[in-house]
Each structure stands twice: as structure tokens, then as C-alpha cells.
Amino acid sequence: MRATTTLLKLIAVTKRYATGGVDGVSVLNAVALEVARGETLAIIGPSGSGKSTLLQIIGTLDRPTGGTVRFDDQDLSTLDDLQLAEVRNRQLGFVFQSHYLLPQCTVIENVLVPTLARFGRARHSVPAAPQPGDDGAHGVPCPTEATEARAERLLKRVGLGERLHHRPGQLSGGERQRVAVVRALINQPQLLLADEPTGALDHASATALGQLLVELNREEGVTLIVVTHAMDLARRMGRIMRLEEGKLHEDGS
Known about the structure:
This protein is α/β, with parallel strands linked by helices. Helix content is 29%, strand content 24%.
């Protein structure tokens, strides 16, 4: 049994970017945050307020200028780049506004891409969503039957059981984003990070995806943090926090 229900804790996290000025530009100012295992959290705020920067720091894609990020009771600042890559691949899942599916690969091949690091290929700089230009699943050992079975089960769960061997160009926008969600969950992460996941979808698809994220949070036991401008999506989360002028606080709206 785990000693604590806290999965993520940020203590006085700051982020500054160097400019012509002496002190640079401060984006995050002593941000404090505590997230329990299994919780759902929405982070809202004006454009340019640093929401995506905060999510990248939580997701180990960027390092803070100061402060402490503790994940699963471990201080991430003590880890080197290879160790952080291991955390990203095994314990974190990522969903972005753009799905980043590999156009030459089928739906199930796209879902299995993050598993490749577990079967002989290092992916030190790439999170669970591959970036444009990544060559995907070529020339590496195959995932296990159990992993493929999980991929098929999750795809059926999100209504894509008949699309396993389709390519992204044959799917609707909402279907492509559902594939991206399944890909983010394939390695059974503890924490799912979603950055404007409904931003490129129409209202009906966005509503369906928001409901799916909440349902998968319960079914998979995965903690969910969503950065969004969409209040319909934010209100589906158990808690809403607002990032404004570098400070994070509970939203009272």
C-alpha cells in the first residue's frame, strides 16, 4: 500500500526566460500545486499565461528555473535526461491539440509507437505523442501479444474497433484524437496530461472527447490534468485552477 495519496506536488516552481533584461521574463512565479492519485484537474487562464509551460514542466519536457517538482514521491530535479525519459515513457501520457499521428501507419501501429522504447529503442527526447518526422515503428522488435491486446481493447472501448487498420487520413478529426488518447494510455501511465485536447474539434466531437477522458480516468485509474480554454471541458474535471500573472490559484467561477 502506498504511503501517500499525493501523486504530484509542485513547490515554489518558477520559470524565467532570458531576454535583453537583467532578470529576463518570468512566466511562472512560485507556483504551488498538489494533485492526488486519480484526481481530475483543469488548468485555465488567458492565452500566454504559461499554461502550456507549466504542463511541459510537469511532463518533464522542460525544467523549472527554480522550485521543486515531486512526482510519485520523487524529486524530478535529481534525475538526469535518460531517467526523465524513462519517467515520460512509463509513467506519463500526453495528448496535444494536434494528434501527431504518423500518416503512413495504421491506427493500431500508431497506438503501439510508445511501447517501442520498452522493446529495444530509446526515445529520449520524444514523449508518448511522436512528433512530425518521427519514423515510427520501423526496424524495431515487436510489442508483446499482451500489449497488442491492450491496444485493441482500448480502441474498441473508444469506438474504433472497426478502424484498427485504417490510416489517419481515413478518420475524422474526433476519431484521430481518440486514437491519440489511446496511444497516450497504452503504457498504463499514472498521469495523463492533455494540452487543449479539444481545441481543433467541433462542438459535438469536443463534448464526446471530454466525456471519454472522464470515463477513462475512472476506468484506467489514471490521474488527469487538462489545460484548456474550453469551460465545458474544464467543468467536467473535479477541480479547476486558474493560472494568471504567473500565479496558480483555485478558480472561483
